[in-house]
């Protein structure tokens, strides 16, 4: 079954714990946390302290997406805060294998993300060392952006690469503009995890929106 990971970037931070609890009761599989540093992407969001607070609000796995420069400096801090999965950007890592190896040494699952302009073929042998590949379907930095349809073939290409290397159990996650209209295209291409922020938290109807997203992909999985 396709996993749904509500992104708290679009949540009401004044009622963050309550909204996370609502998402969990409504059937969310993971909670997605977008960490931005104002350098790698043009926005500044949250750090380990908020991740620690989120950890106290839910038993769901915390899927922490590091959109930051030099992520190696902060891996331990986010591990200590309660992350279950850390995703770093291919574009931000000088030595991706070393970074992924360190994440695993900390007892976490490791993910690698690629931006819309990055060819997934650059991941190459790195696929053998990760638990998740995140295909960005918007340029990272802000919530509420429009889905980029030309990213869909990249999802299918990642699936082909995983199959060619006989790698099983690696999740393919998509993030950016995901809603009941765009999600089916992504899952049909091979996505197994859907990150959705504005389409889940935007109007406050969290449970209804999670259910609508789930229904939209039911026929493609």
* Main β-sheet description: 8 strands, parallel
> Proportion of β residues?
15-25%
Give, in spatial order, the strands making up the sheet with the most strands.
1-8-7-6-5-4-3-2
Note poorly predicted spans: none
Sheet/helix structural class: alpha/beta
Distance between the termini: 7 Å
Q: Gyration radius, to the nearest Å?
A: 16 Å
Q: Could you tell me the mean pLDDT?
A: 95
The counted number of beta strands is 8
Q: Please, how many helices? A: 8
Quaternary organization:
single chain
Shape: globular
Share of helical residues: 25-40%
The sequence of SSEs as H and E is EHEHEHEHEEHEHEHH
Plain-language structure description:
By secondary structure, this protein is of the alpha/beta class. 33% of the residues lie in helices and 19% in strands. It contains 8 helices and 8 strands, in the order βαβαβαβαββαβαβαα. It has helices at residues 16-25, 48-57, 75-81, 96-105, 152-164, 183-189, 198-201, 206-217; strands at 3-6, 31-36, 62-67, 85-89, 109-114, 132-136, 171-175, 193-196.
């Amino acid at each position: 079954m396709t996993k749904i990971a509500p992104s708290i970037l679009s949540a009401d931070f004044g009622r963050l714990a309550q909204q996370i609890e609502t998402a969990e009761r409504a059937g969310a599989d993971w909670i997605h946390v977008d960490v931005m540093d104002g350098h790698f992407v043009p926005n500044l969001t949250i750090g380990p302290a908020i991740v620690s607070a989120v950890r106290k609000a839910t038993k769901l796995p915390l899927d922490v997406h590091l959109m930051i420069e030099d992520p190696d400096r902060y891996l331990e801090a986010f591990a200590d805060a309660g992350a279950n999965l850390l995703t770093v950007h291919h574009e931000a890592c000088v030595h991706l294998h070393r970074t992924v190896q360190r994440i695993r040494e900390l007892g976490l699952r490791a993910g690698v993300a690629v931006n819309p302009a990055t060819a997934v073929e650059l991941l190459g042998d790195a696929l053998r060392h990760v638990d998740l590949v995140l295909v960005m379907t918007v340029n990272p930095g802000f919530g509420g952006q429009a889905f980029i349809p030309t990213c869909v073939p990249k999802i299918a290409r990642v699936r082909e690469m995983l199959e060619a290397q006989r790698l099983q159990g690696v999740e393919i996650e998509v993030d950016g503009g995901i809603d009941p209209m765009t999600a089916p295209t992504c899952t049909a291409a091979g996505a197994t995890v859907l990150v959705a922020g504005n389409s889940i938290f935007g109007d406050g109807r969290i449970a209804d929106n999670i259910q609508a997203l789930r229904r939209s992909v039911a026929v493609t999985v």
